[in-house]
Design goal:
Elements lengths: L16 E7 L8 E7 L17 H14 L2 E7 L1 H6 L2 H14 L7 E5 L11 E4 L7 H24 L5 H4 L5 H10 L22
Parallel strand pairs: 1-4, 4-5
Antiparallel strand pairs: 1-2, 2-3
Helix pairs in contact: 1-4
Length: 205
């Protein structure tokens, strides 16, 4: 894809910035993944954008570029059991915290995709709505979270191929809903979401 809008390279220049984003929050099944990335100040790639706007092939290319070019990067996940025990919002924040924990060197400022976040230690943060389409470090985090989660769901597909997770990655597609209607739920589904088979509806507990 060819994007005309350039991402901002940084929010400010005084502190080392890390972007953080999650993938899989709205899925019926599987874990939520989060990534955090610190990029060099002059990093640029013409394909980098919100992972939802990047073709799968280009996401894989960007994954390699980000991993090799970043000052630091990390990915973490929270499984469906813990999502059910707490809730998806808390699980998403915990996954982000676990990813940030791994950054070496650590950041001086966090840029978080979205409008809410639980403060991480004493590090200041900014929540930025649609930040993965605005700032390079958040976009890079969205690429890593998405590609790592997609790879994990392809692994789970080998165990439960009837749900088509190699294609839908656990999202509530028609294919996935029809499989739930036919086979029921498995151990990787998020029971707290109260999935209604056949209706394509999802409710959050």
């Amino acid at each position: 894809m060819n994007f005309t809008k350039m991402l901002e390279p940084f929010y400010q220049t005084a502190l080392k910035e890390a972007g953080a984003d999650e993938a899989g929050r709205g899925c019926y099944a599987g874990p939520v993944f989060a990534a955090s990335v610190i990029l060099p100040k002059h990093f640029y790639h013409p394909l980098l954008n919100d992972s939802k706007l990047v073709a799968a092939r280009d996401r894989e290319l960007l994954k390699e570029v980000i991993q090799s070019s970043a000052i630091s990067w990390a990915v973490a996940s929270i499984d469906n059991t813990e999502i059910d025990r707490t809730n998806i919002l808390k699980a998403s924040f915990k996954a982000m915290h676990l990813a940030i924990d791994q950054l070496k060197p650590g950041p001086g400022l966090l840029l978080i995709d979205g409008n809410r976040f639980i403060r991480y230690k004493k590090i200041p943060h900014h929540c930025i709505i649609k930040g993965d389409g605005k700032y390079a470090c958040i976009a890079a985090a969205s690429i890593l979270a998405k590609t790592f989660r997609d790879a994990y769901m392809r692994q789970l597909h080998e165990e439960f191929p009837m749900y088509g997770w190699n294609n839908n990655k656990g999202y509530g597609t028609w294919e996935h809903r029809k499989a739930i209607e036919k086979y029921g739920l498995c151990k990787y589904h998020r029971m707290s979401y109260r999935i209604l088979p056949g209706e394509g509806e999802i409710k959050f507990g």
